[in-house]
From TrEMBL:
It is found in: Membrane. It comes from the Bacteria. Gene3D superfamilies: MFS general substrate transporter like domains. Residues 1-368 form the Major facilitator superfamily (MFS) profile domain. InterPro entries: MFS, MFS_dom, MFS_trans_sf, MFS_Transporter. The lineage of its organism: Bacteria, Pseudomonadati, Pseudomonadota, Alphaproteobacteria, Rhodospirillales. It is a multi-pass membrane protein. GO terms for molecular function: transmembrane transporter activity. GO terms for cellular component: membrane. Keywords: Membrane, Transmembrane, Transmembrane helix. Its main location: membrane. It comes from Dongia mobilis. CDD domains: MFS_MosC_like. This is Fucose permease.
């Protein structure tokens, strides 16, 4: 189901140019429209925490997967900007529900296992992202229209949930008896949960920076031709995927504290390499270093959330994930503001410098 989440989310990306053409929006209008997805996710996450706590992980995950299959086709043919915005809000809403459900399930399973598992789970999310974006792009390249590509995506989503659902744990915490009790809808994060949420904000800010600005950095600051500019995020995503698929063994060997210390340092070194060495190939190497360094930081944060007792896991995961998403949403605007006032290189340098908080707080995050 981590694979499903990455697959469904990334399958939308190759359809964006077609949506822009259908709606007739310019870049600014499209940018505002795309915010609907993030707003939908942020709206659903507090509700998702309550649903998971009250009705269990399996209900939340299966419901979100079926709703995703229902909503996704509308992204392939709706021509009205208003209706597309509504579809994107609903898509973000059900993806937010899935984010919380699969992470709570993952933490329950990981806590019961004799070895680390969360990095591998998040690695399958990354693999799903590659499969979704690459698969839909290939289908369109082979001549299939967006509606046909969306139909195949929906069929694969339904197949994934049919295979996984019978094996999902039905409850919403590592204390099965808690499910079904009286649970408030909204819980404000506090204490350790708020602290981890702030760290996730910074970690997701890094990912948002490379997702939205790496191509422009390679073109404007390093002179790379436009046709190759997508290699920046591809290098980052590939390195992160490899890092997460091998991360469980690394975490078991080094421990979470060293992962945060070394990972944070490698991310900062990657930004320094990209910013200080005026070569597109150095920038690509820096982006790969950032991907490797950041790969297992968020899984360690989620492991720490699984240990805390201040909040129900569903509500805690919802709060931390929402704060992380806020980093992805706010990050591009923050970077754009800094880049406009100074330069994109300085904006990237500031994002890299913000990662110093991760190794400095590693001891607090990983304490028993």
């Amino acid at each position: 189901m981590f694979f499903f989440l990455g697959f469904a989310l990334s399958s939308w990306a190759p359809l964006i140019p077609f949506a822009k053409e259908r709606t007739g929006l310019d870049d600014a209008g499209l940018g505002l429209l795309l915010l609907a997805f993030g707003l939908g996710s942020l709206t659903s996450m507090p509700i998702a925490g309550a649903v998971t706590a009250r009705l269990g992980c399996r209900f939340a995950i299966v419901l979100s997967a079926l709703a995703t299959a229902l909503v996704f086709p509308f992204l392939s043919f709706v021509a009205s900007p208003f209706l597309l915005g509504a579809a994107l809000f609903l898509f973000g809403f059900v993806i937010g529900l899935a984010e919380v459900g699969v992470n709570v399930q993952g933490i329950i399973v990981a806590k019961a296992a004799p070895k680390p598992l969360l990095s591998g789970f998040h690695g399958l999310f990354s693999v799903g992202g590659i499969a979704g974006a690459g698969g839909v792009s290939l289908l369109i390249q082979l001549g299939l229209d967006p509606v046909g590509a969306a139909a195949i995506v929906v069929a694969l989503i339904l197949l994934q949930v049919a295979l996984a659902a019978p094996h999902l744990l039905p409850y919403g915490s590592d204390h099965p008896g808690e499910a079904g009790g009286r649970v408030r809808l909204f819980h404000l994060p506090r204490g350790f949960v708020l602290f981890i949420g702030g760290l996730c904000f910074i970690a997701f800010l890094v990912e948002g920076a490379l997702l939205d600005w790496s191509a422009l950095f390679l073109i404007d600051a390093r002179g790379l031709e436009k046709g190759l500019a997508g290699l920046g995020y591809a290098a980052f995503a590939l390195a992160m995927t490899v890092g997460r698929l091998t991360g469980d063994r690394v975490v078991a060997s080094l421990g979470g504290r060293r992962i945060l210390v070394f990972g944070g340092i490698v991310v900062m070194a990657g930004f320094a390499l990209a910013v200080l060495v005026e070569s597109p190939w150095a920038a690509l190497a820096g982006f790969m270093a950032i991907g490797l360094g950041a790969a297992n930081i968020v899984p360690v944060f989620y492991t720490a959330i699984g240990r805390q007792q201040a909040m129900h896991p569903g509500h805690a995961i919802a709060a931390v994930t929402a704060l992380g998403y806020a980093g992805i949403l706010i990050g591009p605007a923050f970077i754009g503001f800094i880049a406009h006032a100074t330069s994109l290189s300085i904006a990237f340098a500031l994002v890299g410098a913000a990662m110093i908080v991760v190794p400095l707080t590693a001891r607090i995050v990983t304490r028993d």
